[in-house]
Amino acid sequence: MTFAEFSSAVRLAVFPEGEPENLVTHHKNWIVDALIDLQRKIKCLQEKHFDCFPMESTLRNCSATLFDAPRGFIQGLRTMSIADSCQRGLFEPLSQDEFECRMQDERLCGTPNIPSQDYLSGTYPELAYGNMYPNAAVDAACHPTNGIFSLINGQIWMLPHLNSTEIAVLEWDGIKREWDDADPVEFDREITKLVELFLEAESKRKEDCDREAFIAAITKYNAGVGDQIYQCNKERRLPERKPCFSNCGFPSMGCGASSTVAPTPFACY
Fold first, then answer.
1. Is there a single domain that holds both residue 63 and residue 162?
2. 219-236 average pLDDT score
3. 259 is a domain residue
4. Residue 186 in 3-state DSSP?
5. What string of H, E and C letters represents the secondary structure of 248-268?
């Protein structure tokens, strides 16, 4: 399900007879407000966010691709071929100093698949700080299977650069604050119902000026949030540690026995 489909389904559930066109934008914003509020309170919703970046939503600087990073904890970056999602490249995180050192090596060593700054200058319109708009003219001959990336001044920098036939997929944890209509979403019925209650409460408060209906809806919402917080904490709880008693290093028991029992090594795969 895309975010646009999710938003439409929630609005249809709250307003089965339809909604005025001039209020649709407000209702969409309140759905986003609900999701932000739920993520702040329920830690289980702060995990496994995926943002996709095609070439046209990125910039180029020398031989690297860069784009704005979300506010959160970066967990990984990979590329994926648009034509074949099984063709992927895994990117290793590096510090800013390490990344810039590798960029310098690529420039001095003249890797064939990574165009030089001079070549790019004749291909792109230039922006501030040496950034440029990318295009397919400098696509590499193949899809790289590995690369490096770093977080520099709030931006993700990746090397090798992104081709026009690929998308960059960034995995991160935290509070997602923006959704595009095409973004895939997965919310179970319990979370969807809470979003519906939040939208209903805001509508009753700001559009209908119905205080009693607002209090009824927001009370159900808060109770449901409390249930989800409890459930999240319960589901993420590790099993209780059980005591372990070992005879390793102690003489084995028996008549006249005095040997020491050696531990069994772990298996290797």
1. yes
2. 92
3. no
4. coil
5. CCCECCCCCCCCECCCCCCCC
The total domain count for the chain is 2
Task: Kindly state whether residue 164 falls inside one of the protein's structural domains.
Answer: yes
Q: Which residue has the tokens 């506010």?
A: 71
Give me the long-range contacts of 19-26 (CB less than 8 A, separation at least 24).
Answer: 23/207, 26/206, 26/207
134 and 24: one domain?
no
Q: End-to-end distance of the chain based on CA atoms, in angstroms? A: 39
Nearest alpha-carbon partner for 73 in 49, 91, 54? 49
The 10 Å Cβ neighbour count of residue 217 is 22
CA-CA distance, 115 to 140, in Å (whole number)?
Answer: 9
In angstroms, the Cα distances linking 160 to 20, 145, 166 are 48, 10, 12
Query: For residue 235, what are the CA distances in angstroms to 45, 108, 119, 249, 264?
Result: 13, 52, 54, 38, 33
Q: Which residue is associated with the tokens 């943002």?
A: 51
Inside any domain, residue 81: yes
Mean pLDDT taken over the chain: 85
Q: How confident is the model at residue 263 (pLDDT cuts 50, 70, 90)?
A: very low
